[in-house]
């Protein structure tokens, strides 16, 4: 089959849509035939309306009736191919949500806000004490989400560096053995942690899961792996790229410093603005034939929902490449949509609000310490993001 593009698309600027993805968007269609990074055929969906529809469409799922024959996005053991049981996927997903929902209620998350603020303040105290220059990635974007999810789940302080290393390995999209090793380490660690929680429970999510009737050690460990990975990797990315957007748009940084009331809007724009050039596309498999935008997607086909492209669809967001804190970005799809909407979305927003409120107040003269073309991005991992963000003030 002839294809016009192959992932991953080269992102020539960390804050801009990849040129090849922009070319696809300008073709006037929302669904494109492409090849994945491992050479498999897939559909890439770039239109906001179509991505939103498919995020909440039960004709698509994460499982496949023949997983060994399914197209893959990459070598990650976590998200490179199908997940779950094709016959029970809907019921399994409903059970997962029912088990996690009580631990991520708005009330529980709002109660965490003072602690998140305190953790961010502690990291910024250390940043100020060390003085410029500093690496905002290593000193803030990376440690804060790890501290927050670690406290929420009840991970001992001394284990947090390990679980981050295992998460990074699990997310490797180019080395299957490394990814499988990372997933295995996360799972084995989670089993041990659950066993300890059953013996000595604390006031944390994993202790409450372990005490839930009908939840086995294996199921609790699987949920733990998901939460440990999803609970910090994406937020690390958003803090780093969000800071870079603000600091390379001085008038927007000034607006946030002058008007703290812009903070909720700023967070939504920070969530909307980043792009990951196809590497951040959400994989789904068609469970049945689907007709959309003049093409037919056949049962079993791999469908990649390009969130970054959807968030830069000019039919929804005027001048989408412009970073604008006054924009109403409520329609951004970074947390998904519908039945699969991210259960930790409110927690991520609380973390982002804590970071950018305190940065604007305490470091009003913050600016990049290097030219943007000197920055490098993580390659060959699911989420990507900056490897470092040198700053001065």
UniProtKB/TrEMBL annotation:
It holds the Pfam family p450. The keyword Phosphoprotein does not apply. Residues 58-78 are annotated as: Disordered. Its cofactor is heme. Residues 58-69 have a biased composition (Basic and acidic residues). Keywords: Heme, Iron, Metal-binding, Monooxygenase, Oxidoreductase. Belongs to the cytochrome P450 family. PANTHER family: CYTOCHROME P450 BJ-1, P450, PUTATIVE (EUROFUNG)-RELATED. This is Cytochrome P450. It comes from Nocardia fusca.
């Amino acid at each position: 089959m002839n294809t016009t593009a192959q992932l991953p698309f080269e992102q020539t600027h960390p804050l801009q849509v990849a040129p090849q993805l922009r070319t696809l968007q300008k073709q006037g269609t929302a669904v494109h035939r492409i090849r994945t990074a491992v050479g498999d055929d897939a559909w890439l969906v770039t239109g906001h309306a179509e991505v939103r529809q498919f995020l909440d469409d039960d004709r698509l799922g994460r499982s496949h009736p023949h997983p060994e024959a399914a197209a893959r996005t990459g070598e990650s053991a976590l998200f490179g191919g199908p997940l779950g049981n094709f016959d029970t996927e809907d019921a399994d997903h409903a059970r997962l949500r029912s088990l996690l929902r009580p631990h991520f209620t708005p009330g529980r998350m709002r109660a965490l806000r003072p602690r998140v603020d305190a953790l961010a303040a502690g990291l910024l105290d250390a940043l100020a004490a060390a003085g410029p220059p500093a690496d905002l990635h290593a000193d803030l974007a990376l440690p804060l989400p790890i501290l927050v999810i670690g406290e929420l789940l009840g991970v001992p302080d001394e284990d947090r560096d390990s679980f981050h290393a295992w998460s990074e390995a699990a997310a490797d999209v180019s080395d299957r053995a490394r990814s499988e090793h990372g997933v295995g380490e996360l799972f084995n660690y989670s089993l041990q942690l659950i066993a300890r929680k059953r013996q000595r429970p604390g006031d944390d999510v994993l202790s409450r899961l372990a005490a839930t009737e009908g939840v086995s050690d294996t199921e609790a460990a699987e949920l733990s792996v998901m939460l440990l990975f999803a609970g910090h990797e994406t937020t690390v990315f958003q803090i780093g790229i969000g800071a870079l957007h603000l600091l390379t748009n001085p008038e927007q940084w000034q607006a946030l410093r002058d008007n703290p009331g812009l903070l909720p809007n700023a967070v939504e724009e920070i969530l909307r603005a980043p792009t990951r050039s196809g590497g951040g596309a959400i994989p789904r498999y068609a469970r049945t034939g689907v007709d959309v935008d003049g093409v037919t997607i056949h049962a079993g086909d791999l469908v990649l929902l390009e969130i970054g492209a959807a968030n830069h669809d000019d039919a929804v967001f005027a001048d989408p490449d412009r970073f604008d804190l006054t924009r109403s970005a409520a329609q951004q799809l970074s947390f998904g949509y519908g039945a699969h909407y991210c259960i930790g979305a409110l927690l991520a927003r609380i973390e982002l609000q804590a970071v950018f409120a305190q940065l604007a107040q305490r470091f009003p003269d913050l600016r990049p310490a290097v030219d943007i073309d000197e920055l490098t991005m993580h390659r060959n991992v699911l989420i990507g993001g900056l490897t470092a963000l040198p700053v001065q003030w």
